[in-house]
Amino acid sequence: MPDRLSAIDASFLYMEDASTPMHVGGLAVFDRPAAGFDFGDVLALVRQRLVYLPRYRQRVVSVPANLARPVWVDDVDFDLSYHVRRSALPEPGSDAQLHELVARLMSRPLDPGRPLWEIYFVEGLADDRIALVTKTHQAVVDGIGTVELGQLILDSVPTDPEPVDELWEPRHEPSRTELVADALGERVQQPGLLMENARSVASDAVNTIGKVAGVVGDLASALRTVIRPAPACPLNVEVSGGRVFAGVRTRLADYREIRKRHGGTINDVVLAAISGALREWMLTRDTALTQDSTVRALVPLAVVDPNTMAYSSAGIVGNEVAPHLVDLPVGESDPVVRLQHISYAMGEHRDSGRWVAARSLLRVGGFAPPTLHSLGARTAGTLSDRIFNLVITNSPGPQVPMYAGRAPMTEMFPIVPLVPNHALAVGVTSYDGGVYIGLNGDRKAVHDIEAFATMLEESVEELRETLR
Question: Which parts of the sequence belong to the O-acyltransferase WSD1 C-terminal domain (predicted)?
Answer without folding.
Answer: 318-463
